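Title: Comparing notes on inverse folding

I've been comparing how different people in this forum approach sequence design from structure. To keep things fair, I'm posting one structure and asking everyone to reply with a full sequence. Here's the target:
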């Protein structure tokens, strides 16, 4: 998908779907088990689908001499967020509800969408996916 339609467009689409699933998922627990399962399966797929696109895009934008550092920094930031998020999620569940906790998780994908749209408008984005942004 990202080779055909572009890295930014593909990542944006995947993050929009992931963010919408996060907004819905926690609230569905009180409404419908079947909808919860369906949205959960979709969410489970789309929540990780953008990771490979970020790695591919990074390898196309970063100079070869800095590639290892850039990929390492990306991994550190990604895992760092993964360490902090469950604690914040737990605090929100304890003080509010599952709906609010999952809605909190939508912040990341929606910020990612903004960043991808900014990158897509950047001239260097033409270096990705053979000019497909």
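Reply #1:
Here's my take.
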């Amino acid at each position: 998908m990202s080779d055909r339609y572009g890295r930014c467009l593909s990542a944006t689409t995947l993050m929009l779907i992931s963010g919408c699933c996060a907004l819905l998922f926690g609230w569905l627990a009180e409404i419908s088990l079947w909808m919860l399962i369906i949205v959960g399966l979709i969410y489970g797929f789309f929540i990780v689908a953008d990771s490979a696109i970020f790695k591919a895009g990074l390898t196309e934008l970063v100079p070869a001499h800095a590639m290892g550092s850039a990929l390492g920094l990306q991994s550190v930031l990604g895992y760092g967020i993964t360490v902090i998020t469950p604690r914040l999620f737990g605090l929100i569940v304890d003080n509010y509800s599952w709906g609010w906790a999952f809605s909190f998780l939508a912040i990341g994908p929606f910020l990612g969408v903004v960043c991808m749209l900014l990158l897509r408008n950047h001239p260097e984005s033409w270096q990705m996916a053979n000019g497909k942004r």
